[in-house]
Amino acid sequence: MTLTLADANRVIAGAIAKAAAIGAKMNIAVCDAGGRLVAFQRMDGAMWAGSYGSQGKAVASAAFGRPSGELTPRADHPTLRGIVMAEGNHMFLGQGAVPIFRGGVLIGACGVGGGTAQEDEDCARAGVDALQ
For the residues of the chain, what is the DSSP string, one character each? Predict the structure, then answer.
């Protein structure tokens, strides 16, 4: 099972729709199960730094198969720090990304950056829900 570009674009469209509904300007990244970027969009007016956050959170969510915010309380654990370092410091262990499963198999993750942590996660979840 793979995540196609069409799938990733549907996820992004769902996240953008949620962001627009709450009045936020977001960066949305979708990566495959290996953490490789499949699609990315930055909404007009979104802060450029959010592009890094959205991708880093998506990579973390894909790596661990769980929402990136679940990793935050343990972000300082030596094992997690070691994994992040070994991976090249691309993972962000903060709230704002959710994994994408198809048929119970992890196929990727959506990460969002630009709002509050909860807004980011809500938009990511809306994006993933648009794929279902």
Answer: ----HHHHHHHHHHHHHHHHHHT---EEEEEETTS-EEEEEE-TT--TTHHHHHHHHHHHHHHHTS-GGGGGGGTTSHHHHHHHHHHTS----SSSEEEEEETTEEEEEEEEESS-HHHHHHHHHHHHHHH-
**pLDDT tens, 58-87?**
999 999 999 999 999 999 999 999 999 999
- State the pLDDT at residue 1: 83
Which CATH number fits the domain that encloses residue 96?
Answer: 3.30.450.150
**Domain containing 18: what range?**
5-131
